[in-house]
Design a protein that fits this description.
480 residues, alpha/beta, 6-stranded mixed sheet, 16 helices, 23 strands, 40% helix, binds nicotinamide-adenine-dinucleotide
Length: 480
C-alpha cells in the first residue's frame, strides 16, 4: 500500500503566483496539508489574505489593458503553450492528486488528461466563434468581460483550473484563481507547470486561501467583472447574493443528485457495471455521480443480484494501486458527512445491500468509508434528495416509464442524468424528457465541446467548448 505507508518529505508552500512570479504570502495563517489515506501531515500552506488578493486583482487588471485587445491568433498561441506546459508535468499532476486528495490513480489520470486537453479544446472552439458580425451599418463584436475570478472545489483540481483558465484566456480575459485550500499541493504543481508557458505578466494569478477571505474579496471587488465558481449550492447562493452589489457576471457549477434510469430492456451484464461506475467514480466525490439508480420493479431481484456480483470489482483501498476503484474521502469532515448520511439512510428505513457504517476492515487509519448500496429507497428519503458526495448509491424501484421519468425529475438538482437500455430510440425518448444539463446514454462518456452545467439548483451557465468561452464574453454593437 505505497501511498499509505511511505513517508515523503514535507512540502512547504509559502508563495502565491502574482504578476508572473512566485511571491511570498502577505497573509500569515498557516494550514496543515493532511494526507487522506493515513491522516498524516504531508505539508503546509501559508494562506493568502485580502491584501494578496487585491495585489493579484491589480496585476490582472493591468494585464487586461493589453491582453483584452489580443487577437484570436495570439490567444490560440497562448493556449498551445499552456497545453505543452501542462502536458510536460502530466505524471506529477496525477501523483499529486493521488497523494493530496486520495484520488484513485485510474481516475486521477483521466481527470488530469481532461484538464490538459481543455487547452486544445478551447483552441478549437475559439476558431468556431463568430467574433465579428456585420449587417447594414451595424457591427457586433464579442468582447472579453474583463478580469475573471475563478473559484474552485477540491475534487478535480487540475480539471477545474485548466478548464476555467482555458475558457477565460480564449475569451481574452485575465484571471485571478482561488483554488480550494484542500488542493494546495496540486495547485502548486500546476502553477509551476504553467509558469513555463511564459505568459504575459499578470494574465494568470493564483492565490490560495480561505473562501471567506480570498473568495469573498474576489466576489466584492469592483475590479473583478466575472466569477466562475465550482462548488456547493450554499456557497453558490452566497456568491450570487454578494456579487450582485458589483453586478458580477456569474457562472455557477454546483451540486447534483443525478438519476440513472435503467430501462426494462437493459442488458444487465453491461448496464450494472456502467451504473456502478457512474455512482462510484472519483470515490463518489463527483458532482455528476449517478447516485439514484431507478430500476423497473419487474427486474428488481435480478438487479440486486447483479449489483452484489459487480460490487466485488469496486474494491476500496490505496488510491495509488491501479486495481483499486474507491479511495478515501478527502478529509475527516467529509468522512463524517458521508457516515452521517449512511446512518440517516438506515434510520429512515432503507435497506443496506452492500457496505454500511464504519471504516472498511484494515483501513482504519485514513478517511475510508465502505462503498454502500441502499435498496428499498423512496425518492423522498434524505439519501435520495440530498447530495452526499461520497460512494453511496440509492436504488429506487419504479412501475412504468412515465413514473421513472417523474422520479428522475423530482429533484432540486439537474446537472447530469443517464439512461441505460437496449432500444436506442426509446432510450433517446426518455433522455429527451430528463431535466438535466447533460444526459448520457449507455454509460459515462465525455465530449469537451458539449456544454457542461446544471438546470435548477445545479447551477447557472455552462462550461466546456464554445459555451464555456461565451460565458466570458459580452456582445458589443457599433452602429453608424
Ligand atoms: P464549497 O462550496 O465548500 O467550496 C468551493 C470553493 O468556494 C472553495 O474554493 C471554497 O474555499 C470557496 N468558498 C467558500 N466560501 C466562499 C465564499 N463565501 N466566497 C467565495 N468563495 C468561497 O465546495 P467544496 O466542498 O469545495 O466542493 C464540493 C461541492 O462542489 C459539491 O457540492 C459538488 O457537487 C460541487 N461540485 C460541482 C461541480 C460541477 O461541475 N457542477 C464539480 C465539482 C464539484
Amino acid at each position: 500500500m505505497k501511498a499509505i505507508t511511505e513517508r515523503e518529505a514535507i512540502k512547504v508552500i509559502t508563495t502565491h503566483y502574482i504578476d508572473g512570479a512566485f511571491v511570498e504570502s502577505h497573509g500569515r495563517e498557516v494550514m496543515n496539508i493532511i494526507r487522506p489515506t493515513d491522516g498524516q501531515v504531508i505539508g503546509s500552506v501559508t494562506l493568502a489574505d485580502e491584501e494578496d488578493t487585491r495585489r493579484a486583482i491589480a496585476a490582472a487588471k493591468r494585464a487586461f489593458a493589453t491582453y483584452g485587445r489580443s487577437t484570436t491568433d495570439e490567444r490560440a498561441q497562448i493556449l498551445r503553450r499552456l497545453h505543452a506546459a501542462a502536458s510536460a508535468r502530466r505524471d506529477d499532476l496525477t501523483a499529486a492528486m493521488v497523494d493530496e486528495y486520495g484520488g484513485v490513480i485510474q481516475f486521477a489520470g483521466l481527470i488530469v488528461d481532461s484538464g490538459i486537453s481543455a487547452f486544445q479544446a478551447a483552441e478549437k472552439a475559439l476558431q468556431e466563434i463568430p467574433w465579428r458580425r456585420s449587417w447594414d451599418k451595424t457591427t457586433v463584436t464579442l468582447e472579453p468581460v474583463g478580469v475573471a475570478g475563478l473559484i474552485t472545489a477540491w475534487n478535480a483540481n487540475a480539471l477545474f483550473l485548466c478548464l476555467k483558465i482555458a475558457s477565460a484566456v480564449a475569451a481574452g480575459c485575465t484571471v485571478v484563481i482561488k483554488p480550494s485550500e484542500l488542493s494546495s499541493i496540486q495547485t502548486q504543481v500546476l502553477v509551476e507547470a504553467l509558469h513555463e508557458a511564459k505568459l504575459p505578466k499578470g494574465l494568470l494569478n493564483v492565490v490560495t486561501g480561505l473562501g471567506n477571505v480570498v473568495g469573498a474579496e474576489l466576489v466584492r471587488n469592483p475590479d473583478v467583472a466575472k466569477i466562475s465558481f465550482t462548488g456547493s449550492v450554499a456557497v453558490g447562493e452566497q456568491i450570487m447574493r454578494d456579487g450582485a452589489a458589483t453586478m458580477k457576471r456569474m457562472t455557477l457549477e454546483l451540486g447534483g443528485k443525478s438519476p440513472t434510469v435503467l430501462l426494462d430492456d437493459a442488458a444487465l451484464d453491461k448496464a450494472i457495471p456502467a451504473a456502478l461506475t457512474m455512482a462510484f467514480m472519483n470515490s463518489g466525490q463527483a458532482c455528476a455521480a449517478g447516485t439514484r439508480l431507478l430500476v423497473p420493479m419487474s427486474r428488481l431481484d435480478e438487479v440486486k443480484r447483479a449489483i452484489l456480483d459487480t460490487m466485488r470489482a469496486f474494491t476500496v483501498g490505496d488510491p495509488a494501486d491501479p486495481n483499486i476503484a474507491v479511495g478515501p474521502m478527502v478529509s475527516q469532515k467529509q468522512y463524517e458527512r458521508v457516515e452521517s448520511y449512511i446512518r440517516k439512510g438506515i434510520e429512515e428505513g432503507a435497506e443496506v445491500l452492500v457496505g454500511g457504517e464504519g471504516r472498511p476492515e484494515g483501513l482504519e487509519a485514513g478517511y475510508f468509508v465502505k462503498p454502500t448500496v441502499f435498496v428499498s429507497v423512496k425518492n423522498d428519503m434524505t439519501i435520495a434528495r440530498e447530495e452526499i458526495f461520497g460512494p453511496v448509491l440509492s436504488v429506487i424501484a419504479y412501475d412504468s416509464e412515465d413514473e421513472a421519468i417523474r422520479i428522475a425529475n423530482d429533484s432540486k438538482y439537474g446537472l447530469h442524468a443517464a439512461v441505460l437500455g437496449t432500444d436506442i430510440q426509446r432510450a433517446r425518448r426518455v433522455a429527451s424528457q430528463l431535466r438535466a444539463g447533460r444526459v448520457v446514454i449507455n454509460g459515462m462518456t465525455d465530449d469537451p465541446q458539449a456544454p457542461w452545467g446544471g438546470f435548477k439548483y445545479s447551477g447557472v451557465g455552462r462550461e466546456y467548448g464554445r459555451y464555456g468561452i461565451e460565458a466570458f464574453l459580452e456582445p458589443k454593437a457599433v452602429l453608424e
